[in-house]
Amino acid sequence: MVFDKSGSVVAVSQMEHEQIFPRAGWVEHDGNEIWVNTQEVIRGALDKGGLEPSQIVALGITNQRETAIVWDKTPGPPIYNAIVWQDTRTQKICDELAALGGGNDRYKDRVGLPLATYFSGPKVRWVLDNVDGAREKAESGDLAFGNMDTWVLWNLTGGTDGGVHVTDVTNASRTLLMDLSSLSWDEQIAADMAIPMSMLPEIRSSAEDYGHVKSGPLEGTPVAGILGDQQAATFGQVCFEVGMAKNTYGTGNFMLLNTGEEQVPSENGLLTTVCYKIGDRPPIYALEGSIAVTGALVQWMRDNLGIIKDAPEIEKLAQTVDDNGGAYFVPAFSGLFAPHWRSDARGALVGLTGFVNKGHLARAVLEATAFQTREVVDAMNADSGVVLTELKVDGGMVVNETLMQFQADILDVDVVRPKVAETTALGAAYAAGLAVGYWSDEEELRKNWGEDKRWTPQMDNDAREQTYRNWKKAVTKTLDWVDSDVD
Which pLDDT belongs to residue 162? Predict the structure, then answer.
């Protein structure tokens, strides 16, 4: 995506890449395919915008944060597919680390995160343990690790011909390996996970000149911004003040609350993470509530069940009924993330009667996103001591007005969509532009933000709380199923 000074979209080029499911609970991406596609969409954006390369002042990167890839530094290719944030194969590794003492919160006071399959560090350990020759190569200093930002940056800046091996603080904060206070790798945790320090990228700020594009249409252009996708969306939503929050509706849902220069430990199942760091300035922290499956549930309805032919059809189908017909969908396909952190949980559809039809199921799918968000908001209010008064939203699902209205209803707060809904890409552009002086400061970025639409609550309070209690009951049934050890 290309943006101008006002934060408006100049050009867009996008491509899908393959979702690889080798077995139940495993999710992978082809790192080489992503790099090829990256080059294609760069060319495509320039062509669609009628732009000359000289008109691009800087390049920013935003990425799936915990999706981890390991590659050989000399020949250059990945030694295994990227392991995606949703993947649950590392549960045994997490259990082994928890058993060393401290349980799932063993490292939480240092890294802000529980031990969970979600994060990158255990994925690296799995690759080293399961790919032939990987451990030996890693010990010899021949392998490199990164989240997808690091892989793309390394290739943009030359790859085996001088590529820069760097990540930013937001991505590093999602590995289970970075100390939140020092913003440096924790050598003890790396040793516990049997990950050689030589594999880890240098940690830098979110907005600075990391290096220049080595070849292709943007040769010579500085790469000057890196933000993990959810932090990028927070930045694009100009949530620069303490207490401001945004919620991104994508494959999963991710809510971040700006806590300023203070690290706020969570007592309610949230994550403490780095929100952003601009150049030499102090880091800004956030509380985050991560939900594994939201938009992915719509894709599942389309691809696995064939109930809809394309994602937008879910709204039309949901509008054929007045409510969910008593059906509640708990989409724990990759376990339950915040505030439960149960990677062993599995999905459930409860409350079925002969009355329930496709429309009711469609509505239950959309409502599952809003109910999970309510759980996160309740936890965030409890941790921060600040009651949310409105919610800024972005991401692909916010075009679904039925969902947005139900979200406002179940939260009992206004839901606000910005004029530029793709705030993730915008946030990366803002970071890069600040680094090279294209924008002077955050105040200039604030002036770019504009409201597109606002949804206000319309649901009766008794109805709101009754349907939410039903949802909580459905979650309990999901966990009861797992705890009963029923195959």
Answer: 92
Amino acid at 260: G
What's the average model confidence in pLDDT over 318-332?
Answer: 96
The helix (H) or strand (E) run that includes residue 324 is none
DSSP H helical ranges for 140-242 = 148-156, 169-172, 187-192, 229-236
Q: DSSP string of 55-87?
A: G---EEEEE-SS-EEEEETTT--BSSPEEPTT-
Token pair for 434: 């600040």
d(CA 443, CA 336): 38
Cα separation of 330 and 350, whole Å? 8
Identify the three-state secondary structure at position 275: strand
Q: Are 153 and 164 in contact (CB under 8 A)?
A: yes
Neighbours of 438 (CB within 10 A): 17
Which pTM does this prediction carry? 0.87
What distance in Å separates the CA atoms of residue 435 and residue 278, rounded to the nearest whole number?
8
Integer Cα distance of 208 and 277 in angstroms? 10
Q: In terms of Cα–Cα distance, which of 353, 75, 73, 376 is closest to 249?
A: 376
Residues 6+ apart with CB under 8 A from 245: 239, 255, 256, 257, 258, 380, 388, 391, 392
Cα separation, 152 vs 39, in Å, equals 10
- Tell me what the mean pLDDT of segment 380-406 comes to: 90
Burial of 118 (0-12, 13-18, 19+ CB in 10 A): buried
Predicted local confidence at residue 485, as pLDDT: 59
Euclidean distance between CA atoms 256 and 110, whole angstroms: 19
Average pLDDT of span 18-47 = 96
Please report, to the nearest 10 degrees, the dihedral formed by the alpha carbons of residues 448, 451, 452, 455 taken in order: 160
> Distance between CA 363 and CA 371 in Å, rounded?
12
- CA dist 290 and 257 (Å) reads 12
Contact assessment for residue 286 and residue 274, using Cβ atoms and an 8 Å cutoff: yes
**Coil vs helix vs strand at 245:** strand
Q: Closest Cα partner for 286 from 295, 278, 277?
A: 277
Contact yes or no for 207/224 (Cβ under 8 A): yes
Q: How far apart are CA 230 and CA 291, in angstroms?
A: 12
Q: Which two tokens stand for residue 165?
A: 């091996």
Cis amide prior to 114 (ω within 30 degrees): no
Strand duo 451-455 + 414-418: pairing? antiparallel
Query: Mind giving me the DSSP string for 9-32?
Result: EEE--------B-SSTT--EE-HH
Q: How far is CA 243 from CA 240, 260, 426, in A?
A: 9, 8, 21
